[in-house]
Structures are given as structure tokens and as C-alpha cells.
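--- STAGE predict ---
source: upstream dedup step, 1 unique chain passed
mode: sequence only
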Amino acid sequence: MATQPTIPAVDWLLDSDVVFLNHGSFGACPTVVHDEYQRIQRRLETQPVRFLQRELPDLLADARRSLAGFVGAEEDEVVFVANPTYAVNEIARSLRLGPGDEVVTSNHEYGACLNAWTFMAAKSGFELVTAALPATIETDNDFTSAIWNQVTERTKVIFLSHITSATALTFPIAEVCHRATSRGIITVIDGAHVAGQMPLDVTSLGADFYVGTCHKWVCAPKGSSFFYARRDVQHLIEPLVVGWGWGEARQFDSGSDFLDFHQWLGTDDPSAYLTVPSAIRFQRENDWPGVQARCHKLASAFVEEATSIDGVRKVHGDDRFAQMALIELIDLHEGRGGAALLQTQLYDKHRVEVPVISWTDPAGRARTFVRISVQAYNTEQELARLAGALAALHVSLKT
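--- STAGE serialize ---
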């Protein structure tokens, strides 16, 4: 297998009794970053009025500047939000779509965000058109063609993931974004798994709107995410929550509706947002490109090793995933409890935290995937433990 990553588990707050291979769901916070988070919270509580009314505007501006540089945006093009689902809801509700309009998406999208579009389609009367993609893609052109084959003169929005959640697949979205711009189609990209897992430059991607997390692969505290909107489309966004950042008498007027709509909703704890620069600094101080490369090699080696297990096969080529990877269990049947039972037994019997995912392919076939997330704290021994557990449990669950 690949060389073991160099950031030791002791630098993280994770339970040492559990093999944690599910960083992709909610992330994990390094101890030094979490210490900064708690320091900011204590600073807030020592004098809440001073902190929230006098200090917070400058603190938020500094944190946003750090985040913007990290994701390749201008500092007035990105705001903090609690999670990508919030931002996607705001976009879906803001855009003036109605009968005769279409939103093109894919069958790989994250359920909560897809729910926002489904809800608004029922409410406003536009059509949600789904491009049926296989579990993996062979070439970038295969992906672009599959999406573009669904585009018509009625298409107003394209909504896609950059890295998919259920299938751990990196979509080559730049060509779709640039082609959509030339047609006047708005692009909304869900990049929840990208920042911190692979280099990100939202400007060069050409998306109109891009939403992502800091609490996953950036390793900031929970509830820290971002919403990027290119300047020329910011006027399309209406606040999902109308608070102190709206109206002529708004507080702390920054000169930007987009910024003010999201910074002054009401009383909240902004500490997770303000900790993001500490998480970015942690990665820069620990050679994160090197960590990412080692984690990818470790994931790739595990996938190759796991395919030697009876009933397990590879899903993606190495160039289609980063630190999250899939293996497929080809003879696991839902009639015996299937994915849910296997995930429970992996945790209860082997203390391995890893998602087992049921996914339906375009042909209507039920597929079962194990999705590993390899982060700096993971080791070869932990992945070998998962492989051994799968070999033992998979046999017992086969019909």
C-alpha cells in the first residue's frame, strides 16, 4: 500500500477506538483548529455586545478574505453560510422560474439539495430534467455530452455536483459551465466535497453559483460553509432570511446586498466561520498537497486490494476520484438487510465507521457501494482492517 500519511491521529479529536473512514459525511476537526474555535467562542461570551456589534464586521471581513483566496474568488463574491443546503435553497427560491422552464441535473446529486429543486418545481411549475449517468464515466466528453443532450431552448439552470456524494465521482464541470454561459444558462454547482480535498478555483471553473463546505475537507468546525456568486449574478439572489442586512436602515452596510443579506440575519454564533482561517493555516503548515496525494494513493491501493475479495469490484479509475473512493459489493441482497445491515455490523462488530450506500443505476439495477474517505489521520492498517471486516461480513450477508 501507499506510504502512511504524516499527520498523527493524536492531533485530531476522533475516538481512537473507532476506525473513522467517513470524513466525507461531516468532516473532522484537528485539535489545534478546535482549540481556536473554542477561544473565539470564549471571546464572544466575555463581552457579547462588543464582539457582535463592534468587532464582528472586521473579523468576518478578514475570515472571508482568507476563504476567498483559498477557493479562488474575490472577497466580495463569497459569503459564509451554515451548509450548502441553505445556499441551494436560497438560489432555487430566488431564481424566477416557472411553467415552460427547465432545470437540468443528474441522477448523482445529493438528496437534500435535490429536494430544494424538487420542492420549487412543484411550487413554481418548472420541470426538473435528470440526465441519467452511469456509476462512472470514461471520458470528460462522455459527461459533457450526457448533460448537454438534456439541454433545450427551455433550459434555464444546470445544477450539478463537482464531487458526488453517493458515488464519490469527480465531475469535469468546467466545460459544461463555460458552454452554459455562452447560452445564457445559469450554472449552480454543489462543491461540498471539493475544498480541501482537491485544488479549487471557482473563478476559472466559470460557474455562476458555487456552494461548498469548510467543515468537511477544509477541517473547520461544523456549520461553516460558503456560497460563491459571481458579481454579475448577485442581483438575482434574494435573502432566504430577511434580517438586519436588508433594507435602507440595514446595520453595518458593506455596500453589497449579497454580503449584507448573509452577514446580519440575527443573533447567531459566528465562531465556526471565524475559525476557517485557522483551518486553512493548519493545512498550509502541514503540506496539504502532499497529504492529499498520499491519501489518494492510500485510497487507490485499498481499492485494488479490496477487489481481491470475492464479490467486490472496482468502480472508478484513479483519475475519477480524489480522497473518497468506492468499491462495489456485487452480490449483497437487500432481502437480508443489505447495505444498512452491513454498515451497522461493520461498526458494531469491527468498530469501522464507513457508509454503505444503495444506489440505483440508469438501468434500474440496485447497486451497493462502500465509500471510503481517506484523510490525514488514516493509516494502511485501518484500511486493512476494513478489508478484513468486509471479507468476513460480506460472506455472512450473501444469500
